[in-house]
């Protein structure tokens, strides 16, 4: 909704560079559109179990991204009359493509005794993405186009979950990992905006519930068990150009549910 905000702030030139600056939303934004193609192969080899492979392709147009443009407006605040502002606002300024494979397995084998109810769910995704973003000079003129990976998309990611599901007790131990990925460009106030990348991310979580009787259930949840540190860096060079470091909290929660 902030991208569609019609309010624009104008800041007249106070450094004698010859133009002011402005920032706001864009009420003329068009929706992003995507032409999609999916092909899936599925094999159900047992009750409640499946192996699958999916290929998909996305061609995206009207990509909404930050854009700078030169506009003329009245500088009523300091009686300078009409002059140029460099307006920073979102615009439909790019295109993108995304294609890849996803492989997955859900398997609950027929086991005996206490092992009955044990199963695994896993998936792996391989992606190839690109987006075209305009390069603008100091006055908002497009001087070329920059090709980058699609923002927020890792080339590789996978997840594995070990499950145990019985009528009285159930538990899940799940692990998720994703590769480094392009996040954004540095703020436009820098002369040569740099690419900002986010490093590898992972999460190990656990969940369990015990139905003590038909009315009373106890639960336990734990997140971020590996306690990793996440890194952001310039140009995907974490050892040379560190940008941010994050360390998320581990959480543990006990719960009780009672129903009449």
Structure description:
With 260 residues, the chain is mainly beta. The chain has a single domain, classed as TonB-dependent receptor, beta-barrel domain (Maltoporin, Chain A), CATH 2.40.170.20. It is 0% helix and 64% strand. The protein has strands at residues 8-11, 20-24, 33-46, 49-74, 82-107, 118-136, 142-148, 156-165, 169-178, 181-185, 195-198, 201-211, 216-223, 230-234, 242-246, 251-258. Strand 1 (8-11) and strand 2 form a beta hairpin.
CATH topology, by name, is Maltoporin, Chain A
Q: Name the CATH superfamily assignment.
A: TonB-dependent receptor, beta-barrel domain
Domain count: the total is: 1
Q: What is the name of the CATH architecture?
A: Beta Barrel
Percent of residues in β-strands? over 45%
The whole-angstrom Rg is 26 Å
How many angstroms does the end-to-end distance come to? 43 Å
Q: What structural category do the secondary elements indicate? A: mainly beta
Provide the CATH top-level class.
Answer: Mainly Beta
- The topology string of helices and strands comes to EEEEEEEEEEEEEEEE
Number of strands: 16
> What profile does the largest beta sheet have?
12 strands, mixed
């Amino acid at each position: 909704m902030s991208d569609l905000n019609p309010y624009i702030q104008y800041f007249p030139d106070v450094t004698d560079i010859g133009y002011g600056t402005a920032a706001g939303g864009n009420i003329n934004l068009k929706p992003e559109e995507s032409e999609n193609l999916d092909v899936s192969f599925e094999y159900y080899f047992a009750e409640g179990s499946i192996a699958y492979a999916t290929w998909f392709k996305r061609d995206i147009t009207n990509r909404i991204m930050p854009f700078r443009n030169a506009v003329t407006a009245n500088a009523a605040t300091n009686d300078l009359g009409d002059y140029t502002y460099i307006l920073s606002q979102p615009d439909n300024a790019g295109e993108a493509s995304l294609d890849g494979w996803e492989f997955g397995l859900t398997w609950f084998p027929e086991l005996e005794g206490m092992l009955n109810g044990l199963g695994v769910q896993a998936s792996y995704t391989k992606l190839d993405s690109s987006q075209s973003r305009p390069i603008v000079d100091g006055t908002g003129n497009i001087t070329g186009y920059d090709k980058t990976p699609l923002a927020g998309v890792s080339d590789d990611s996978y997840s594995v979950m070990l499950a145990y599901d019985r009528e009285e007790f159930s538990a899940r131990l799940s692990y998720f990992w994703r590769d480094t990925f392009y996040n954004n460009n540095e703020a436009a106030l820098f002369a040569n905006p740099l690419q900002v990348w986010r490093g590898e991310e992972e999460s190990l979580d656990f969940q369990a519930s015990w139905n003590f009787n038909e009315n009373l259930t106890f639960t336990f949840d734990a997140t971020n068990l590996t306690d990793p540190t996440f890194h952001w860096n310039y140009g995907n060079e974490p050892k040379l150009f560190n940008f941010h470091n994050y360390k998320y909290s581990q959480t543990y929660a006990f719960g009780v549910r009672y129903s009449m």
